[in-house]
Amino acid sequence: MALKEEFEQQGIWLFRYRSYLPLIILLVGLGVFIYMKTHPYLFFLENTRWESAYELLCLSVGIFGLLIRVYTVGHTPANTSGRNVTNQVADMLNTTGIYSTVRHPLYLGNYLMWLAPALLTGQVWFIVAFTLAYWLYYERIMFAEEQFLSRKFGESYAQWACSRPAFVPKFTCFKKPSLPFSWKKVIKKEKNGLLALLLIFLLFDYTGNAIQGSNKIDIPLLTACIAMGIIYVILKYLKMYTRVLDEENR
């Protein structure tokens, strides 16, 4: 098998099982975090007045990644960008909005969301290792996706892709989105993102306190998790049993 076909086959396989990557990152990152907490001298901000500010910065990075996903999904038509489970889906080629600046905005958003807990470890080597692992993993997925789009859209895809970076946005190419923003689509597709992020930070926070001999729980963070949990259940019910969130062609 030629290397090109091998890369594509690997990308297709990785695409189908990409939901497991965050779990691996979470478990490894939690292990590194626990080691750091038991050896506080490894992180220069540990037990300083700047520690809380750093944790807030980490959470902000994750939320920024989520906002990239929200903006991307909110301006796209049905059967294009989203949480496709097993197969690539593209009824049309997205070339406006954030897609006018970068070819893979959803994967950029994912990177920042997963970078957030990686940053909590406070270990530069782990953050770099995570970044490299993420790139190696998603490079194959992006390759397979681009092969799919190239075959389906031909020259239209080639002309669009030649001047758009794969991962780092080129804002000088920005074009206004062709579709208005749809909160209904965002709610249907991205309703679990913020809850998952908050729960991860609550887990890290509680684990860190427990290691230091405290049962203290971050009340604002816990309250946010409970509120988002309730909202998630409501939205899940609306999606499954009503048509409130349905929107034509979105």
Describe the protein:
The structure is a single chain. With 250 residues, the protein is mainly alpha-helical. The chain has a single domain, classed as Four Helix Bundle (Hemerythrin (Met), subunit A) (Up-down Bundle), CATH 1.20.120. Helix content is 64%, strand content 0%. The protein contains 9 helices and no strands. The chain has helices spanning 3-16, 21-38, 51-74, 105-120, 124-153, 155-161, 183-190, 193-211, 219-241. The two termini are 39 Å apart. The mean pLDDT is 90.
Using brief descriptors, characterize the structure shown.
about 250 residues, mainly alpha, Four Helix Bundle (Hemerythrin (Met), subunit A), 9 helices, about 65% helix, globular
CATH class: Mainly Alpha
Largest sheet: none
Distance between the termini: 39 Å
Under the CATH scheme, the architecture is Up-down Bundle
Task: Indicate the overall shape.
Answer: globular
In CATH, the topology is named Four Helix Bundle (Hemerythrin (Met), subunit A)
Number of strands: 0
Helix-and-strand structural type: mainly alpha
Multimer state: single chain
Task: Provide a concise account of the structure shown.
This protein is mainly alpha-helical and 250 residues long. It is built from nine helices and no strands. The relative contact order is 0.14.
